[in-house]
Structure formats: C-alpha cells, structure tokens
Amino acid sequence: MTDATRVPASYRGEAFNQVPDSENRIHSDEVARQYGFEGALVPGVTVSAYLTHPGAVAWGERWLDRGHAHITVKKPLYDRRGFSVTVGDAGASAYRADLADDRGTACATAEVSLPGSLPAPPVRRGDPPVGDDKVPPTREGLEALRRRGMGAMRAIWAESVPMATYTRDPAAMPALLRPSEGGFANTAFLLGLTNWHVAANVALGPWLHLETTSQHHARVPAGSELVVEGCVVDLFERKGHEFVDVDVGIFLADDTPALSVRLRAIYRLRG
Fold first, then answer.
1. What is the CATH number of domain 11-115+128-268?
2. Which residues contact 48 (CB under 8 A, 6 or more apart)?
3. pLDDT of residue 198
4. Cα 140 to Cα 135: distance, rounded to the nearest angstrom
5. What's the rounded Cα separation, in Å, for the pair 198 and 262?
6. For residue 84, what is the enclosing H or E element?
7. CA 86 → CA 24, 51, 97, 106, 169, distances in Å?
8. What distance in Å separates the CA atoms of residue 177 and residue 262, rounded to the nearest whole number?
9. Domain ranges (residues) in the chain
10. Which pTM does this prediction carry?
11. Spatial CB neighbours of 177, under 8 Å, sequence gap ≥ 6
12. How far apart, in whole angstroms, are the C-alpha atoms of residue 216 and residue 63?
C-alpha cells in the first residue's frame, strides 16, 4: 500500500518524558508536584508528536512537506503512563485524533491534514541573534519583548539533540523519522524549537506548552542547520495564569521555510 492510499490509524503507546533535567522544571517530579501535578509532565511537544504519529506513518514524506495540524493539550500526560490515540474521521488526507491516558483522562486533541493548497510560507526577516538580556516572565517583560522584537535562535537537527525521539524505543517511530537512520526532524523536535525560542528570550520559570497551529513547508534532513524567528502577537490572563501567543518561523540555512507555527503557552503559572 502506498502513502497515497494509506489511512491514519489509532494506536497505543507508553508516554516518554525525554527531558527530566530540562531547564523547564515542570518536567521534574519535585517542581511539578509543587504546582499540584502528580509528577513530571511529559512535554506538550511530545504529546503533539503522539497525535501526528498516525499521519507520519500513513503519509510519510508528504506529511513532512505539507502537513498541517492544530493541537491542544488539555491535561497532563505523565511519564511511563500508557496512552491511546484514537483516530476519527480518517481519510486519505485528513483525520482528527484524541489522546487519553490509561486512566481515561482526555489529555489532548488534534486536527491533522494534508491541505490541497498551502498558505503563503513565512519569509525570514533577518532578526538579530538572541542575546543575554532575557526579559522577566511578567506582563511588562513580555510587552517589552513584543515592542522590541525577539532575537533569532540557531539549532541543528541531529541524533544528539533533545527530542530526537518521542518514543522510549526509537524503533517505534516511523523509519523516516529515526535519527539513528538519518531520519528527518520529527514533530517533538520541530515544535520544541518554538519552546526553546521563547526560553532563549524570556527568563522563564516553570511553564506550559498548550496549543499549536503548525504548517510544514519542507522536510528537515539530518544535519540541517536551522534558524528560528518569532514575534509575540498576544498576551492575556486567564484564571490567574499568564498566557502568550507567539508566531514562529523555522528556516533551513538557505532561508527555505520548513515550518510555521502559532504557539500558545502559559509563561507564568498562578501561585
């Protein structure tokens, strides 16, 4: 069966927290419990990878070249917790998916597709590189960042980077994404760049990745150098949490756009 005729399918897995030592200490047991969670949170970008996994399996390189996804993380997923991704309304070019843990908690949802026509890709602005002057994680700090602009960040897609795999056993990933086999960049790594870009510009404490709308424009081969640019587009408060929306463009070294993303995150948790 070719990628053109395969339909995304439901599956089960075990959650994997790749970054228990992350600077974002919400991924550590100690700090997560201080905020009322059962333990360390699996990164939102990893949860996102679980939801796009059926598309990567079914559509292969077409997913990496033109895939679109709107993903919302609603509840925490914990390390080593079993989970199921239930695919619905699946066809040759679109599906929706729900992720629930083995206790039946609805953790995240996604709408995933291969659009017939792509939106205009982002254009690299040539933002200055990120410096050492991070703004504080306050409304005033983020407002200042919105006015002055965010510094650009550089990265490399390689087997050694965080988020190189989103499963504990890399063999559970589609072959085209396995880093040990020279695979292309996966959803966890690419959306992870949006997190790291915010963290490079803001002196964050514990924070949460909540929602993304993303559009692939080109696959990212092994060894690729990348440039990440972004801008703050909205700031608001809800139930004591402080939220930020950021538009992010990810580019290959020759300025070819690879991914555009609208990220929503809680940059300051209440309490």
1. 3.10.129.110
2. 69, 71, 73, 108, 110, 187, 188, 191, 212
3. 96
4. 9
5. 12
6. strand 82-88
7. 29, 9, 5, 11, 21
8. 23
9. 11-115+128-268
10. 0.95
11. 56, 183, 184, 185, 186
12. 8
**DSSP β-bridge partners for residue 249:** 229, 260
Tell me the residue type at 166: Y
- Say which amino acid occupies 221: P
Polymer length in residues for the chain = 271
Query: Facing residues of 236 across strands?
Result: 243
What six digits make up the tokens of 213?
Answer: 């709308």
Please report, for residues 27, 42, 58, 236, the alpha-carbon distance to residue 208 in angstroms, rounded to integers and kept in the order given. 10, 11, 30, 15
Q: Count the alpha carbons within 13 Å of 169 in the hemisphere toward its beta carbon.
A: 4
Half-sphere exposure of 223 (CA within 13 A, CB side): 2
Residues of the chain with pLDDT under 70: 1-5, 22, 25-29
Which residues are CB-neighbours of 233 under 8 A, at least 6 positions away? 146, 245, 246, 247, 262
Write the burial class of residue 20 (CB in 10 Å: 0-12 exposed, 13-18 middle, 19+ buried): exposed
Q: Helical H runs in 23-107?
A: 29-34, 44-59, 61-66
Q: What is the pLDDT of residue 20?
A: 76
Extract the tokens encoding 133: 């002057």
What is the tally of helices (H) and strands (E) in the chain? 5, 10
The pLDDT score that the predictor gives to residue 172 is: 95
What value, to the nearest 5°, has the Cα angle with vertex 71 and ends 67 and 73? 155
Q: Which amino acid is at 206?
A: P
